[in-house]
Amino acid sequence: MTRLQEDYNKRVRPELMKELNLSNFMAVPTIKKIVINCGVGEAVTNGNAIEEVSEIISLIAGQKPVVNKAKKAIAAFKIREGLEIGVSTTLRGDRMWEFFDKLVNVVFPRTKDFRGVNPKAFDGAGNYSIGILEHTVFPEIDANKVAKIRPLQLTIVTSTKDDKQAYALLDKFGFPFIKNVNKS
């Protein structure tokens, strides 16, 4: 059991039960999975781009990603149906908790000019999406050996369908939300 998972079971779950007025501990929200995605638009012209990004995601996530293919042809972008245009991986279990711990305690503090994440980035179904502009903020990546800086998209999927409960869950783990954003 990872450090954050143990913290969830001993501290976060009981606190959320009281805070959200839940009677059943199984109704307390939890993180189900984290999806890491990277679109590789340059794969149209650069054949090695998919392998390069796949290797980067493997280092960051600790598991091999899936190569995503285009579902439709888009002539304006020179994309044919079936062309490899991105990579993604889904983390669950211990790897997910370790990655979340690394994200909150290592990656965000290493991000240049980081002021926090937007608390309005929930999707209405309890999931939170983040864009990371530089993959070099991850400790597994040697910035001196990077050919091109690539952006990543992360989606944290929770067990709740309510954004307020998902916000409370992530906040209990010390997720760095910007505190004084206009709540409209």
From TrEMBL:
InterPro entries: Ribosomal_uL5, Ribosomal_uL5_bac-type, Ribosomal_uL5_C, Ribosomal_uL5_dom_sf, Ribosomal_uL5_N. Residues 24-80 form the Large ribosomal subunit protein uL5 N-terminal domain. Residues 84-177 form the Large ribosomal subunit protein uL5 C-terminal domain. Pfam families: Ribosomal_L5, Ribosomal_L5_C. One of its GO terms (molecular function) is rRNA binding. GO terms for biological process: translation. Transmembrane segments: none annotated. One of its GO terms (cellular component) is ribonucleoprotein complex. Keywords: Ribonucleoprotein, Ribosomal protein, RNA-binding, rRNA-binding, tRNA-binding. PANTHER family: 60S RIBOSOMAL PROTEIN L11-RELATED. Part of the 50S ribosomal subunit; part of the 5S rRNA/L5/L18/L25 subcomplex. Contacts the 5S rRNA and the P site tRNA. Forms a bridge to the 30S subunit in the 70S ribosome. NCBIfam families: PRK00010.1. This is 1 of the proteins that bind and probably mediate the attachment of the 5S RNA into the large ribosomal subunit, where it forms part of the central protuberance. In the 70S ribosome it contacts protein S13 of the 30S subunit (bridge B1b), connecting the 2 subunits; this bridge is implicated in subunit movement. Contacts the P site tRNA; the 5S rRNA and some of its associated proteins might help stabilize positioning of ribosome-bound tRNAs. Belongs to the universal ribosomal protein uL5 family. This is Large ribosomal subunit protein uL5. The gene is rplE.
